[in-house]
TrEMBL record:
Gene name tied to this protein: atp1
One term under GO cellular component: proton-transporting ATP synthase complex
Function text: Mitochondrial membrane ATP synthase (F(1)F(0) ATP synthase or Complex V) produces ATP from ADP in the presence of a proton gradient across the membrane which is generated by electron transport complexes of the respiratory chain. F-type ATPases consist of two structural domains, F(1) - containing the extramembraneous catalytic core, and F(0) - containing the membrane proton channel, linked together by a central stalk and a peripheral stalk. During catalysis, ATP synthesis in the catalytic domain of F(1) is coupled via a rotary mechanism of the central stalk subunits to proton translocation.
NCBIfam families documented for this protein: atpA, PRK13343.1
Cited HAMAP family: ATP_synth_alpha_bact
Domain of life: Eukaryota
Segments of skewed composition (Pro residues): 530-539
Ranges of residues in domain ATP synthase alpha subunit C-terminal: 382-482
Protein name listed in UniProt: ATP synthase subunit alpha, mitochondrial
GO MF entries: ADP binding; ATP binding; proton-transporting ATP synthase activity, rotational mechanism
Amino acid sequence: MEFSVRAAELTTLLESRITNFYTNLKVDEIGRVVSVGDGIARVYGLNEIQAGEMVEFASGVKGIALNLENENVGIVVFGSDTAIKEGDLVKRTGSIVDVPAGKAMLGRVVDALGVPIDGRGALSDHERRRVEVKAPGIIERKSVHEPMQTGLKAVDSLVPIGRGQRELIIGDRQTGKTAIAIDTILNQKQMNSRATSESETLYCVYVAIGQKRSTVAQLVQILSEANALEYSILVAATASDPAPLQFLAPYSGCAMGEYFRDNGMHALIIYDDLSKQAVAYRQMSLLLRRPPGREAFPGDVFYLHSRLLERAAKRSDQTGAGSLTALPVIETQAGDVSAYIPTNVISITDGQICLETELFYRGIRPAINVGLSVSRVGSAAQLKAMKQVCGSLKLELAQYREVAAFAQFGSDLDAATQALLNRGARLTEVLKQPQYAPLPIEKQIIVIYAAVNGFCDRMPLDKIAQYERAILTTISPDLLQSLKGMFMLKERIGRILPKIILLSITLVFICGSSSSVPPSEAGLNHAPDPTAPAEPVAPDPDVYHPLLDDNTRSAELDERAGFHFAGLSESDKKNILDSQVIIDRAIEKALLSDGYSRDELNELSKRNEIRGFLFYPKAGVSSNKNEARPRNGAGKEKWACGSPSLDYLGCPFGFLSKLTNPINPGLRRPCQAFDSTLGNATSKERESERSLNSRKDGSENIAIVTVSGLRETGLDAYRTKIVSIYAQTIHIGGKLEASIVPRLTLECYDGVFQFVPTKQNPA
């Protein structure tokens, strides 16, 4: 049989076969496990592998190549090595370790590889970023100039932190390092609520390294209850995780934070703590047979932390103006900050917050050592208003520590030294703050302003906390609102603050000590809402009211006030007198509800043992302090807040009553102890201040504070049953307002007073 082969057909057939030929071959470079143990696998055959490349074992466990040697590759295993045997195949993945990043991570808890461990399902809508990237260069950076508020008075005033800064938190175990970090996260809740754009929001990344699982679970619960998880990411490499995961976790968290930094947003990352990462890295290095150095750490342990912390930066405007702020935590042993790892990280960071065990156990919390703590670049980002009020704070605390050390050995101290000790003790008390209670920056400014300017120098130490609550309760919400966006204390605010502080001091002096008995347990009756519109007062003929008689009330008012009303119009004077009637009626109602009979009230009123206090606008007062005295010849014992020291401040308020201090009956003027701390002002400044406080219609606000008090056997023996104090603001025309003194109630039981918020009207 003959076969005839046509060349054209054969060519066509071959060409079609070649054209349709398709190969689907995947080439993997593989190696074999030579030895495995202690989380380290020695693999032979991976000649082209990269340093830091991910590999996958036959059992599905992954690892990372760290040691590239001539004969084999040293691989650290992410997970348990019990499923890996000698001779098992190992294949390259061709990729460097990467983790998910993006806003989809917010509110999630993940491990060091970015795998969710919170039981809420897989991640969605995210990108992946390498854990090891180069830090931004010099040209891409910008100087730190934006504040990052922690909500802690001691930090924001003494060691301020800016966005893009790296501030170390260092101290022994159980000194409050994690508490500072958590408070910072919680404080961003109120900061983010004020943000007007995405670029102002601060996102948080918390990296837990080598901590107990129960500690991480407790942290998640705290953040969840405070609604702080919505802007936070938690990366957890707990104590039960292998050393490679504890080593990798900070880099993974940093990659997640860099997503916000590189997209024009702001992020805060907390490494808690890098000491455990260094220990994990030492364990890996020794098992990889790397030569040990100081304290058995490998030679590149400095580079371990420097390449991590250098990635925290403030980007330039050309590269998006984002920032990544780092708060690394280092645990010391017996307060030794000169150890290897602490000195390394101190030299890398831009400052440190040093915590001491001794301060912690003395009740000074946060237990910050002001002398050792420093912020090298944060002062450039500190609010100008805060910088104004705390300029001398650190120096005064340093002088206090120096003098306090010598004062322990001697009892005879001169007046200047004693004053320094008194001021330092009160400054230290003011800087104390409970855990998980961050304070807005505008409230910090007011409290520190009061402490630095000596307004609490005579206040007992156990009353400092009550005084702080009083001043923050008394201050006008409008003033707080103005301080929020104020980068510098304006002249007007600087003149108003002393008045508000003095008002708070007066309230504390009137109130006595704070009560630990809740009002409900003490059987106290709450006052009626003072913000409700005042109804016309119908005088009760059965109750003695000296101010209700038109013929005598002017003289009686003048006598009780120790002040004349020259310059006030008749209508204004009548409105003030009518306001006093409201006070007396409120006292009457409170005492009648407590079981007093009308006969008892009549007798108490006649003996002038029920007192009402009224803040009223002073009129006809000369700028000369000598002419500011009462015309009726009353002496200092009748002079309350209308003292010359307050005239210097241009204060438009004075007290109406013979004021006797419940704490110290000999101190008739609650503000006289502060005269030495107040500065003088020219008559022109005082006149300017008076015009500043005047309303457009020519009238001024007056604030009424009503007090009912009972005196039984002389000045030193006060026995007060149930007493209510109402605070409210009333316009001269009788219209209720809320501009100077917010509504609050001060209640007293057996001579012990406390602040109780007064229920507000929905309107």
